Structures are given as structure tokens and as C-alpha cells.
Amino acid sequence: MTRDTIPGLGDMQDLISTEIERWLSSCERDPLAPVHRWGLSPRGKLLRPVLVLQSAATVSGPREQVLPRGQLLPVAVGIELAHVASLAHDDVIDGDAMRRGRASVPSRFGTAHAVLGGDALFFALVQSLAVCHQHGATAEAVVEAVRIVGDSGRDLSAGVAMELMLSGCGQGLPFGGASGTTAYVEMVRLKTAALMSGACQIGAVLVGGCPQEVAALGKFGEALGIAFQIGDDLLPYEPGPISAAKPVDSDLRNLRPALPLMLAVDSANPLDRTRLASGDMRWDEVRALVRDSGAVLRARELRDEYVGRALTALNALPATEHRRHLAALVDYALGGG
């Protein structure tokens, strides 16, 4: 699936991009304005704000033309601002100099400005909920959306902390085995999937979705987020040119618990484990080790399991064209377009 083959996706992304530009223009006098503009470029697929709008359309049916455009664009953009904030903070923690093919925010503006800029973007998400209320969302819906934002932010922070605890696992390498995979999935559920799940829930809540619909969309977003992160971890090891958003050696350099590397380490011989831990193994050797170990296949299988869970969650929603469009976003999110 591509931007052109999912009905309405291109228009949705264009609306979001226009709203992002409007938001950037509104804070041009802010000392952090250059930091914000840099972090928000290039735009990418805008998956998380699209999930807000498409989830709303899935539960609101014929009202879609009335509600999401007015009520939800500010908070859809707010979700993207929070996502970009988390990337800036990640780059500070990981010491990554590149992001999306150019200098990362901390590399360009320094650590202090990256932290401050990220903080400001998180607060902008909260502010966007007040704007949605001004545009017609009920006070009750906004309060529930604030709760979801709070839960998502807390989970994201816990996920990053868990990633730091799992990095190296005290032995110089990420651990593997069944316990390692379980810990990895929980970490990803918190760090990556929580914001996607929150985006889906917020879209439904703000247009009056019932609790069952909100819960189903939350499960969809969570499973999609886990599948998405596994797919992201797989990018450096897939055939063809590497097109990762961050440096391909970042996980190895920081001994982060990326699933393919964890699975490969679990089955590696003692010599390879020692070389990995000491940093003596070249990147092309690491890539070959991961591929030859069968770790790529096992990671793909787990990714596909969560793709299935995401699609199954949608079965609780009415079988409309909007639900089909939401299902099509799964392939799009995982690199199909």
C-alpha cells in the first residue's frame, strides 16, 4: 500500500503538513523556533497523526467530514510534536549525530536546546487538547484525552528507562532467550506502541466513540506499534540498501536491545559474543552474523504475529471503508509504501 493507493491518505497528510506549518509559524518568535522547525523536517509518513484522524473516521462514519478536520487536526499535530520530541530526547540519550539523513537535533543545536525543545513539544500536545475543546470537542472527551496522553507519556518514559536497563544487561550484551524476548516486547509496548495506541484512542474519544470502540482501537495501535518497532529493528539486516532513520550502528554501539541482535547473540558462539561485547566486530560482520543465525526470520515471525493481532483488533469495529483504510495503514506503516 502507498500514499496513492489508500483513499484519502494523501489529503490527510497534506492537511497535517499544513497544520504543522501553521503551528510553526505561530511560534516564529520563540527562541526554540529553529529547533522545532529542524526537528519537524523532513515530515516523513506522519503515521501517528494519520492514526488520530483515521481512527476518528472509523468510529464516526458519515460525521467524518464535520468532526476530524475541525476538532482533531490540532491534536493530531500535537501527537506528531510529541513523537518528534521523543526522537530528540532519544538522540541525546544515544549520542546519535544523524536522524533522517541529516544532523540530529542535539548534533545541530546542542544537548540543552534538544532537551528544552523536546520538553516544549510535549507541552504543545497538552495545549492542543484545549484547542480541540475550543473547536467543539466536549469537556468530558477532552478530560479523557488528557488522561490518555498522560498514560502514554508515562509509558513512553518507562519504556526508555527499561531500554536503558536492558542495554548490555550487565554482561556487555543484550540478553536473549524467552525471557529476553518477553522483556523486549514489554519495552517496545511502552516506548513505541504506547503513543500509537494513544493516538488511536484519542481520535476515537474526541468524536464520541463508545468504550468498546476506543478499547479496540487502543489494542490495534498497540499491536501495530510493536510490529512497527520490530520492523524498524530489522531494517539494517534486510536485503538491499539500508534506509533506517537513525545510524545503522546505533543499537550496536549503545548495546541496545534490538530484537534481531538479541536473538543472534543468544545463539552466538562464545568468541562472537566476546567480539561483539568488546566492539571488535565490524558492522558488515555483525550484519552477516545476525542474518546467518536465523534471527532475521524469527524477528519477522514475531512482527507478523503482531500484525495479525492488529488486524484482529479491528474486527470489533463496524466493517466500513474507514476500517479498511485503517487496516491498509498497517502495510503502509511497515514499509509497504
Automatic annotation (TrEMBL):
Which cofactors does this gene product need? Mg(2+)
User: Keyword set for this entry?
Assistant: Magnesium, Metal-binding, Transferase
Q: Which GO terms describe its molecular function?
A: (2E,6E)-farnesyl diphosphate synthase activity; dimethylallyltranstransferase activity; geranylgeranyl diphosphate synthase activity; metal ion binding
Stored InterPro entries: Isoprenoid_synthase_dom_sf (IPR008949), Polyprenyl_synt (IPR000092)
Q: A GO biological process this protein is involved in?
A: isoprenoid biosynthetic process
For this protein, what is the EC number? Answer: 2.5.1.1, 2.5.1.10, 2.5.1.29
The lineage's top-level taxon is Bacteria
What family is it from?
Belongs to the FPP/GGPP synthase family.
Protein name per its UniProtKB record: Geranylgeranyl diphosphate synthase type I
- Native source species: Streptomyces netropsis (Streptoverticillium netropsis)
